[in-house]
UniProtKB/TrEMBL annotation:
Keyword Zinc: no
Organism per entry: Bifidobacterium eulemuris
Record SUPFAM superfamilies: Periplasmic binding protein-like II (SSF53850)
Classification of source organism: Bacteria, Bacillati, Actinomycetota, Actinomycetes, Bifidobacteriales
Protein name per its UniProtKB record: ABC transporter substrate-binding protein
Signal peptide: 1-26
Length: 545
């Protein structure tokens, strides 16, 4: 009896999984009772987002494609396992939004429809590629196919996600100046720890906090950004990779990285780094920065805007500071962290299944995202509730109708936000709430640092396509490289020992084929530079407009 029950249960799971992954629905019905085609759209979205059917703008999307959309919705934190199952089964939905990336295109490209010969049937997307050639460059695979479509919005994005904030009110209370070097920062952090700058009579200040580095590598809002003090343009790509004068390098074995670890260990010994910096999750990191009952707790950290990390009540206490010098008289010119190419041109936001049943309707769905009205609503929310349409390509994003939400939370609740395919064009007139333009002042702080960056030769670009062999090579090598590097980073910052163990550590990374990965990425970089040159892209011009 139990054996039969097990067989039935397993069969049910397999059946349900197959239906979910295939996107075909019960009975393989591809046409609704009214004769209109059905398009299954898998969307990977923020946990704050409401159901797609409850976003009124999705009705406009259906009208644009003259079809019915069946939504499959997955929170981004749960997508990875589902994605692996879908790729293994070679079954993906008709259209997937924010679900697949360049690595998936290299390894599983045959699962997705090549849109190169479909552009005449996608007039909005074709117009985008003609107006923004870099958008087509990041959408083109190593073998010349267009398997995914981008999200483009240069006018509404920054050059970096990593903005460094310090509590100016605390500085003023203690009579301190804004630090300009690592030593000065250390002095300020020690003062924050010992002199009660928030004035509540308790030693509850956290001088320095950051987003916890994971075992999989560095991400945003983490202290590796301080490598910019010594001339390394830190991106948000493969662990340790950066570019100087067109040459791909890796900072994991660079003495400047060792110097940073020595400095961070010194701060740890000073007791000025949060004791939870290597263990807290995202929720704890962000909630701690918002303080308690109007009292700030964190002195220095990194984030997109002050309001995002400290909340609107405390945001005014903080200022953005430019790149520090590692030391006075250093030979290296400070720069800053850069991921602006990825922010402005996010690749593979939408892909179409190679086995799509209603291809014409699916292409219309994707293309509709690049019309002005859908682009705006998919990113900011529906007309009347979230956006006022003033005229053709003229919009005002409204303040939140819910007073308990800030502008960012309201946006992520009512739209796909930056996860949406679309094109916010430079000829579009767009008025945003103050909270959604707060990043501009933060980003402008780094104007001087970015003057020291040649965006055509000193940036490890996001979204560079790889061949299947290249992808498999770096993936095979990355396991040993990442495990060794990240475990040592946490150990050395909290316990010391980097000087004694450095040579052995470097040898271990080389044994795990770090040099081979650098060689592969040089090939990838050189190939992408040729694509950029062929489309006439000049990133120095784009970043200085």
């Amino acid at each position: 009896m139990s054996e039969k029950r097990s067989i039935v249960t397993v069969s049910a799971i397999i059946c349900a999984t197959a239906m979910l992954l295939s996107g075909c629905g019960a009975g393989n019905q591809n046409t609704a009772s009214d004769g209109k085609p059905i398009v299954v759209v898998q969307v990977v979205k923020d946990a704050r987002a409401k159901k797609m059917a409850d976003m009124e703008w999705t009705q406009d999307l259906e009208a644009a494609c003259d079809c019915h959309i069946t939504w499959q919705e997955t929170v981004s934190s749960s997508w990875d396992q589902q994605k692996k199952a879908a790729l293994a089964a070679e079954e993906v939905a008709d259209v997937t939004i924010s679900g697949f990336g360049a690595g998936d295109m290299a390894e599983y490209g045959s699962l997705f429809l090549d849109l190169t010969d479909e552009l005449d049937n996608m007039p909005n997307l074709k117009k985008l590629f003609e107006a923004e050639p870099y958008a087509q460059a990041v959408s083109t695979t190593a073998d010349g196919k267009i398997l995914g479509t981008p999200a483009v919005g240069r006018s509404i994005t920054a050059r970096t996600s990593n903005h460094m904030f310090i509590n100016k009110q605390w500085l003023d209370t203690l009579g301190l100046q804004v630090p300009t070097t690592w030593d000065e920062l250390e002095e300020v952090l020690v003062a924050f720890k010992t002199q009660d700058p928030n004035g509540n009579g308790q030693a509850d200040e956290i001088p320095l906090d950051f987003n916890s580095p994971g075992t999989g590598g560095f991400g945003l809002f983490q202290p590796n950004v301080l490598l910019a003090s010594m001339g390394i343009v830190v991106g948000n790509g493969p662990l340790g990779m950066y570019v100087e004068d067109g040459i791909v390098k890796n900072y994991l074995t660079d003495d400047r990285y060792k110097d940073l670890i020595v400095y961070l260990n010194r701060l740890w010994e000073d007791g000025v780094i949060s004791s939870e910096a290597f263990t807290h999750d995202w929720s704890k990191y962000t909630s701690t920065a918002k303080g308690e009952e109007g009292t700030a707790k964190v002195g220095v950290t990194w984030m997109w805007t002050p309001s995002d990390i400290f909340g609107t009540e405390l945001a005014d206490q903080y200022i953005t500071i430019p790149s520090l010098k590692a030391e006075d008289g250093q030979s290296e010119t400070p720069v800053w962290s850069y991921n602006g190419d990825d922010l402005a041109y996010q690749a593979d936001r939408a892909v179409v299944s190679a086995k799509v049943s209603n291809k014409e309707a699916a292409l219309k769905v994707v293309d509709a995202f690049y019309s002005p009205d859908i682009s705006i609503q998919a990113r900011y929310g529906s007309f009347d509730t979230c956006v006022k349409k003033n005229g053709a390509a003229d919009y005002t994003v409204l303040d939140p109708a819910d007073s308990t939400k800030n502008a960012s939370d309201w946006q992520f609740t009512n739209s796909l936000a930056d996860g949406a395919p679309g094109w916010i064009g430079g000829d579009m007139k767009l008025e945003l709430p103050e909270q959604l333009t707060e990043y501009r002042a933060a980003d402008a702080t780094y104007d001087g640092d970015f003057e020291n960056v040649d965006f055509n030769n000193d940036v490890f670009y996001a979204n560079m396509p790889m061949t299947m062999d290249q992808s498999r090579t770096v993936s095979a090598n990355n396991t040993g490289i990442t495990q060794g590097a990240m475990s040592k980073f946490a150990q050395w910052v909290t316990k010391g020992g980097v000087d004694d163990e450095w040579d052995e550590y470097v040898a271990s990374l080389q044994k795990n084929n770090l040099d081979e990965n650098i060689e592969v990425y040089q090939q990838v970089y050189d190939s992408f530079k040729k694509t950029m040159a062929g489309t006439g892209v000049d990133l120095n011009s784009l970043n200085n407009e």
